[in-house]
């Protein structure tokens, strides 16, 4: 309607003034309802053509969409393992901080594993003490074996010397017995040394490794025990938290609830524009939004990024052939953020919005190599954005009336 009224000022009104004051034709006499088309055919035709061209230019260079939503991310509350709920720490709807306990699972099995790991460490510590005693005992055995060997050698040396000086004074059988005794005492020393080395290996390598394994098992048991206490990973709010003691939760089949991170849906707005706007939508474009949950308010925004892919064209390889005719036309997905810091603070997350984006050719117009005609056309393109801005404000003004009165609810 605004476009038609604006275009009529440059086409239909001049045509009528020419007929009235130049040709002397008056409404109701020469210009009637039946002769209006013939008398004002040039103005009507020009008005229609100019209106269509103006509407096309406005909607192309200043795209608008009603498919805009403040999407917000939700996080499923899931334990890392299955279990039966022992205690619930939060209510149906409640704000939470990072690290707060949400609920706990039955931890009897994990507690038993933790106690077993602790007892294993104590057992290894006792074995370390015993190994130290075995090392001391082995050292004493080595010293005793050395003493016995020295005594046997001394006795063998004495009798061998006597036999050398006075053959026959010492029976040969005694000397052979002493030699066997010396060999046995040497073997005892070797056995004592081997026993000492074995005890030292137990003390320095095997038992420390066993203790490290036991400590690792204790840490693992502690981790498993901690997993039975489910905490919030971020600041936010739990909603529709129906979990109760006795329920069984499973990370694959049954989440415990939903956690909405703090500030979700209030940092940006996502809008889907028509595919024909792909060459117009650019990051940095100024935009405005009117949201259903915040009536009579226009939120200044800026387009931060435009998705290069249309979601309707995606597919996964499989055994079914793709039929392009069955694909519904998708939209150009754009991300917008408020110009003001808390521009979306009062808008409810998930709210649907109407968004207008405005093309700005100021830099092109200000460029030295831009001609006068091109600059005039670009000025006109930027100026007609005012019509779209007026339409958005009228929509925001009528939104409560349309929703509460005219919708029939």
SSE topology:
Elements lengths: L1 H9 L1 H11 L13 H4 L1 H21 L2 E6 L5 E3 L5 E6 L5 E3 L4 E5 L2 H58 L6 H55 L2 E3 L4 E4 L8 E2 L7 E5 L7 E5 L12 E6 L7 E8 L25 E7 L13 E7 L3 H5 L5 H12 L1 H22 L3
Antiparallel strand pairs: 1-10, 1-14, 2-9, 3-5, 3-8, 4-7, 5-6, 7-9, 10-13, 11-12, 11-14, 12-13
Helix pairs in contact: 1-4, 2-4, 5-6
Condensed summary:
With 409 residues, this protein is α+β, with helices and mostly antiparallel strands.
What does this entry look like structurally?
It contains 9 helices and 14 strands. It has 409 residues and is α+β, with helices and mostly antiparallel strands. The chain has 4 domains: 1-60; 62-72 and 263-313 and 327-401, Elongation Factor Tu (Ef-tu), domain 3 (Beta Barrel); 75-106 and 229-261, RNA polymerase II/Efflux pump adaptor protein, barrel-sandwich hybrid domain (OB fold (Dihydrolipoamide Acetyltransferase, E2P)); 108-226. The protein has a 6-stranded antiparallel barrel. Helix 2 runs antiparallel to helix 4. The radius of gyration is 47 Å and the shape is rod-shaped.
């Amino acid at each position: 309607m605004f476009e038609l009224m604006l275009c009529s000022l440059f086409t239909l009104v001049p045509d009528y003034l020419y007929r009235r004051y130049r040709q002397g034709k008056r409404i109701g006499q020469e210009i009637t309802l039946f002769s209006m088309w013939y008398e004002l055919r040039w103005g009507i035709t020009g008005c229609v053509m100019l209106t269509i061209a103006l509407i096309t230019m406005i909607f192309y260079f200043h795209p608008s969409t009603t498919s805009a939503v403040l999407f917000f991310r939700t996080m499923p509350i899931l334990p890392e393992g299955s279990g039966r709920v022992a205690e619930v720490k939060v209510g149906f709807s409640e704000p939470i901080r990072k690290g707060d306990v949400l609920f706990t699972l039955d931890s009897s099995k994990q507690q038993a594993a933790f106690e077993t790991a602790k007892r294993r460490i104590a057992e290894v510590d006792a074995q370390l003490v015993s190994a130290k005693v075995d090392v001391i005992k082995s050292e004493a055995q080595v010293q005793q074996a050395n003493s016995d060997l020295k005594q046997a050698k001394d006795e063998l040396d004495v009798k061998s010397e006597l036999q050398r000086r006075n053959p026959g004074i010492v029976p040969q059988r005694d000397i052979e017995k002493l030699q066997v005794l010396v060999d046995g005492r040497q073997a005892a020393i070797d056995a004592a040394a081997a026993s000492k080395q074995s005890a030292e290996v137990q003390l320095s390598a095997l038992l420390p490794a066993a203790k490290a394994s036991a400590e690792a098992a204790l840490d693992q048991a502690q981790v498993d025990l901690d997993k039975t206490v489910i905490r919030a990973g971020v600041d936010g709010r739990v909603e529709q938290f129906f979990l109760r003691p006795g329920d069984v939760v499973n990370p694959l089949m049954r989440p415990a609830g939903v956690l909405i991170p703090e500030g979700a849906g209030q940092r940006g707005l996502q809008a889907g524009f028509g595919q024909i706007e792909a060459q117009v939508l650019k990051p940095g474009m100024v935009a405005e939004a009117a949201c259903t949950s915040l009536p009579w308010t226009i939120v200044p925004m800026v387009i931060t990024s435009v998705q290069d892919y249309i979601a309707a064209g995606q597919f996964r390889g499989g055994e079914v052939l793709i039929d392009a005719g069955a694909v519904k036309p998708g939209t150009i997905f754009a991300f917008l953020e408020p110009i003001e810091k808390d521009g979306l603070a009062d808008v409810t997350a998930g709210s649907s919005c109407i968004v207008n984006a405005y093309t700005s050719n100021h830099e092109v117009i200000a460029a030295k190599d831009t001609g006068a005609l091109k600059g005039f056309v670009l000025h006109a393109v930027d100026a007609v954005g005012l019509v779209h801005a007026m339409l958005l404000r009228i929509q925001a003004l009528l939104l409560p009336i349309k929703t509460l009165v005219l919708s029939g609810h």
